[in-house]
Design brief:
By secondary structure, the protein is an alpha+beta fold. The longest helix has 27 residues. The N terminus is likely disordered. The protein is 37% helix and 22% strand. Helix 5 packs parallel to helix 8 and helix 6 crosses helix 17.
Length: 828
């Protein structure tokens, strides 16, 4: 019989080819994790800045949060809501920025490293999870899973996005590794480490909230397969307790503000599948798409080469083998690994955002899928090695095929996909390339005063790229430019270009950000502020797309004369002024609000601006983060006046009348408006009106009766109806009325008693007297129902709060009861 060497003898790779299961006491140091880490680093950093190209919007926002953490000491410790950061990646990126500088490579390098770290972590997890199958078998399964993961283009490319989902796989695999090492050895230190890592994972990504539940269910299934695992119940409780302790601050937030727990699944674009009317059909369709994703085809959206499946053919076969072998013999490690793969796919399955699997929600399940595939390939390896009629080298076809298939995938990415990406015309791949080109131009012209449209600066990739050159941000009031000063405006070739960022709310072509001497100044909208003095020069992106044009110009703008507002909100934010465009305009209303913090703001808020009708119903509004988080409220300095501009989409053909413009900050965490210090929940910025069209009707009876000093009745038309009479009153404003008056019409019978009357503000309350302008004529219709009889008709005005009537004067005569006699009528 041939001598079989133990797994601790020879080189790390040679140990995989040999079978045996020597006690760990005689094992040497396992160098495979280090080798696999180097492999992961090589594949993940090979295309660091090119696959994908440009800068991802979510990554840029995370980078800006890390920038604020470094520059302003703003540290987001909890997962707040869908627009705020998951904190772990912010701190990791902050460290990288301090060491390597505020660069795209540092931004992507953090997640690329964590993606590479998941490779050896997957090997360690497989080695511990499948140790019950034999030491050599377990190491082979872990090795095959780790190599497949390291050479997987999807996982490597996703790791280079710079976004937080990629932190979770490495944490998951380390947790599984130490958990199962603890279950095998019973050492308390393993359970302690498992609990700490499990608690820390809750600060990595939103899908991590499902991970502890999935882990508990999978452990329960494993215990059913191997009851001896129950002997370590104390260790499991210790791990659970420590995890709860580490994650306690975040879960306290979830209790205080439940919205923060369901923020990403509560919106109309991301509902729970089970809440849909056709939930069963959607679940079946999504399950089918997930299965196709694994072995046939997967369109992963913004991802080079995404039409290929997640698993190579050999690994997909391994996954099927693993499922079959687990159903055949249900060992604890097998059922745990497969259960985790299925359970970590559940968040994508249960949240509806289209039928195709979403890459960011699938990533946490990827290492478990590769573990299961590695398990199946290890079964094939062992089966081939046990066939005496086959040559010994036949078994090596399994690892060789895994490596070659992964290498072919890497070749396909480098030789086929990336050249095609670079050759794609236009703005498709991706608009962030345009933003990279714009930032590169400004980096080469730091000595110039550059004007950038505010809508461009609010695109997160560009704001992030500019932060390294213009680290200071400040209000543009008072104006940092003088008339006649030379400036260089940059105009995007397609300001409304499609992108993952969308068009910032409130885009205005006359709103600029001045970039000068390391500072970004946010200027208020100023019409005709820039006069071009030279020809425009084109600026091209790396894919030859026309990114923008630049031209020499002179600044002619002067500071706007804002209308004052005095509104102090409870969070320390003051609204001090506003400007509005013409109302009603051509489908939109331009609004600029001027905000000023009384003190350092301690929590980020959204700002809402709404146009209300007289009944308080919203006609138009915008509810968003100020400047799309390019300069968040928490970073504003006390005393600086920040202009925020909006364009409200106003419904066409608004009826004449009074409208209110309101605004205020909104606490998204607690889902409530932040009230004013004096109680109301919002500030009324201005009252706006749609004027009456010119009056073409002529009254049957003309007169000139004065009601007080501001209002006159210039005529009326009285007509009988089958139920009473109709009265058309022609009012005219002699001066600006100071309050809203109520019109009364009395029908008085022969006994001097009021037989019928109406009371109401002019035009049914839609056009109150307080909005009348001097010289404006208001046609006011009243209908009075009355029984048959002869009546005298009187009209007058009074103030509702006091019931005091306005005095009436007609041709020098003043009735004692302050009502005007219009004549007698007979209702048939």
């Amino acid at each position: 019989m041939a001598r079989v060497s133990g797994p601790g003898r020879g080189s790390p790779l040679r140990q995989l080819w040999r079978q045996g299961n020597e006690p760990r006491a005689v094992q040497r140091w396992d160098w495979l994790p280090l080798i696999l880490l180097l492999l992961g680093l090589a594949t993940h950093f090979a295309h660091l800045l090119t696959a994908p190209p440009g800068v991802h919007g979510d990554a840029a926002r995370l980078g800006l949060h890390a920038f604020d953490f470094i520059q302003r000491g703003i540290w987001p410790f909890y997962i707040y809501h869908q627009a705020a950061p998951n904190p772990l990646i912010v701190y990791l990126q902050a460290v990288a920025f301090l060491v390597f500088g505020f660069t795209p490579a540092a931004l992507r390098g953090v997640t690329a490293f964590w993606g590479a770290l998941a490779v050896p972590a997957t090997y360690l997890a497989g080695r511990e999870l499948f140790a019950g199958e034999g030491e050599a078998f377990a190491r082979r399964a872990g090795f095959l899973a780790a190599v497949g993961l390291a050479l997987n283009p999807f996982f490597g490319t996703f790791a280079r996005y710079g976004i937080e989902p990629i932190l979770l796989p490495a944490l998951e695999m380390l947790i599984v590794a130490v958990l199962w090492r603890g279950l095998r050895r019973g050492r308390r230190v393993d359970f302690i480490l498992c609990g700490v890592l499990l608690g820390a994972s809750q600060y990595a990504y939103i899908v991590a909230r499902a991970f502890p539940l999935a882990l508990a269910v999978a452990c329960g299934v494993a215990i059913l397969a191997n009851r001896r695992l129950v002997a370590h119940w104390r260790g499991l409780l210790l791990a659970a307790g420590l995890a709860a302790l580490v994650a306690l601050p975040q879960w306290l937030l979830f209790v205080r503000a439940p919205y923060t727990f369901v923020a990403r699944t509560k919106g109309a674009t991301q509902p729970l599948v089970l809440s849909l009317p056709d939930a069963g059909h959607v679940l079946i369709a999504k399950l089918a798409r997930q299965f196709l994703m694994l072995g046939w085809q997967w369109d992963a959206g913004y991802h080079p080469g995404s039409t290929r499946p997640l698993l190579t053919p050999i690994l997909f076969v391994g996954l099927l083998v693993a499922i079959g072998m687990t159903l055949y013999v249900r060992r604890a490690g097998r059922v745990f690994g497969l259960a985790m793969a299925g359970l970590m796919l559940a968040p994508d399955l249960l949240i509806y955002e289209g039928l195709s699997p979403m890459p960011n929600r699938v990533v946490p399940a990827v290492p478990f899928l590769f573990l299961a595939a590695g398990l199946g390939c290890a079964f094939l390896w062992r089966w081939l090695a046990a066939r005496p009629r086959l040559p010994a080298w036949t078994a090596l076809l399994v690892p060789a095929t895994v490596v070659l298939a992964g290498a072919e995938s890497q070749w396909y990415l480098a030789a086929r996909v990336l050249p095609q990406v670079e050759a794609t015309p236009g703005l498709e791949w991706k608009n962030s390339l345009v933003e990279v080109a714009e930032a590169a131009y400004m980096a080469d012209h730091l000595d110039e005063a550059i004007l950038l449209p505010s809508s461009e600066y609010q695109r997160a990739p560009l704001a992030y790229l500019l932060a390294q050159y213009y680290p200071r941000r400040h209000s543009g009031l008072p104006l940092p430019l003088s008339p006649g000063e030379t400036v260089t405006p940059l105009a995007p070739a397609e300001p409304a270009r499609p992108s993952t960022e969308g068009i910032p709310a409130g885009y205005r072509s006359d709103e600029w950000v001045l970039l000068e001497e390391g500072t970004a100044y946010f200027l208020p909208p100023i019409a005709d502020a820039v006069v071009r003095s030279g020809e425009a020069q084109p600026l091209y992106a790396s894919n030859d797309a026309l990114a923008a044009t630049v031209a020499a110009a002179r600044w002619q703008g002067v500071a706007p004369a804002l209308l004052p507002v005095s509104a102090s909100f409870a969070n320390g934010l003051d609204l001090v002024g506003y400007e509005t465009g013409a109302f009603p305009g051509e489908g939109s209303l331009a609004v600029t609000l001027y905000w000023q913090p009384r003190q350092r703001i301690t929590a980020d808020v959204q700002i809402y601006v709404q146009l209300l009708d007289r009944q308080g119903q919203k006609l138009a509004g915008i509810h968003d983060w100020p400047l799309r988080e390019a300069y968040r409220v928490r970073a504003w300095q006390p005393g600086e006046t920040m202009p925020l501009s909006y364009l409200l989409d106003v419904p066409p053909n608004l009826p004449p009348g009074l409208y209110r413009l309101i605004a205020g900050p909104y606490d998204l965490i607690h889902q409530e408006r932040i009230p004013l210090l004096d109680g109301p929940e919002f500030a009324t910025v201005a009252t706006l009106k749609v004027p009456l069209p010119p009056i073409t009707d002529v009254p049957d009876r003309a007169l000139k009766a004065a009601f007080g000093e501001a209002i006159a009745l210039t005529g009326y038309t009285l007509s009988l109806t089958s139920t009473g009479l109709d009265l058309a009153l022609f009012w005219e404003a002699q001066a600006l009325p100071q309050t809203d008056y109520t019109v009364f019409v009395h029908l008085v019978d022969a006994a001097g008693q009021i037989a019928a009357q109406t009371d109401g503000q002019p035009r049914g309350g839609t056009y109150p007297t307080s909005i009348w302008e001097v010289g404006e004529t208001v046609l006011d219709q009243h209908s009075v129902a009355a029984p048959p009889g002869e009546y005298q008709v009187y009209v007058g005005l009074y103030q509702w709060q006091t019931l005091a009537r306005l005095p009436v004067a007609l041709e020098g005569a003043a009735p004692s009861d302050d009502r005007l006699y219009l004549g007698s009528v007979t209702v048939p």
